[in-house]
Design a protein that fits this description.
Largest sheet: none
Order of helices and strands: HHH
Number of helices: 3
Strand content: under 5%
Radius of gyration: 15 Å
Length: 87
């Protein structure tokens, strides 16, 4: 059950981060941060409880984190650019 929860949270995180990259807002940043954090927490719990192989798990986690943080960075830059134009 935890694995299914982890997968759903990770997919929601990627979807939210993608939406954030195209239409940034402060609330979407908070949602994206929370979902990324929850994904990392549930992934850590899965590794500990299932005794998953660390190398494969960490590489998958780093790939996920790279994609998610790339979306956050793009969203942040667009948000900052839009804020600059408003001033």
């Amino acid at each position: 059950m935890l694995l299914l929860t982890h997968i759903i949270i990770a997919l929601a995180s990627i979807a939210t981060t993608t939406y954030l990259a195209f239409a940034p807002s402060r609330g979407k940043f908070y949602a994206s941060y929370a979902l990324i954090g929850l994904t990392l927490i549930t992934g850590t719990i899965l590794v500990i409880t299932l005794h998953a192989p660390m190398l494969k798990t960490c590489l998958s986690g780093l790939a996920y984190l790279a994609v998610a943080l790339s979306g956050v960075v793009v969203g942040y830059r667009r948000f900052a650019h839009a804020k600059q134009l408003d001033q």
